[in-house]
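Supplementary Methods, section 5.1.

A reviewer requested that the exact input to the structure prediction be made available. We therefore reproduce it here, unchanged from the version used in the analyses.
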Amino acid sequence: MPLLSKIKLCWFSDDELLKDSPRALVELFLNSLGASKGTASDIFEILLLNKKKGIHLKSDEIRNEVIEMRKNRKELREFDGNIDDSLSKRNVQIWLKFFKDIKMIECINDMYFFSGDKFPSDVFEMYVKQLVIDESVQFIERLLKKIEEGYGLKKE
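The structure derived from this sequence is encoded token-by-token as follows.
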């Protein structure tokens, strides 16, 4: 059975939107898509910070900025792990591929940025929602019809 993508959607109470920390909201967004690793949040946060500056980054630059961000957080006691945990070039590439696969980001000339150079909420609405959510729901609907057919259930 060929699996095209594995995404675990989670739904949280709107009370979660009351969090003050932008970082906590990034983590909540990624948790909603089943990406609960700190490295994914770090990479996404770097993309957000550079979106604000209008800068596109190469994967090595993203990795280096994550390292700097973690160093700063460690000094503020907001980060207690090893600075380079889960930041091998390969792991950074895996997370960038995840974001590319769901169409959240794109890469042109080895430079990464939000798809269409748009705001993340617009990218989600234009690409991610259709690809991840709508396609999954449509597959489930087709699957249920096939199950009904297999069990001889017919609508009157």
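The chain has a mean pLDDT of 91. These observations are discussed further in the main text.
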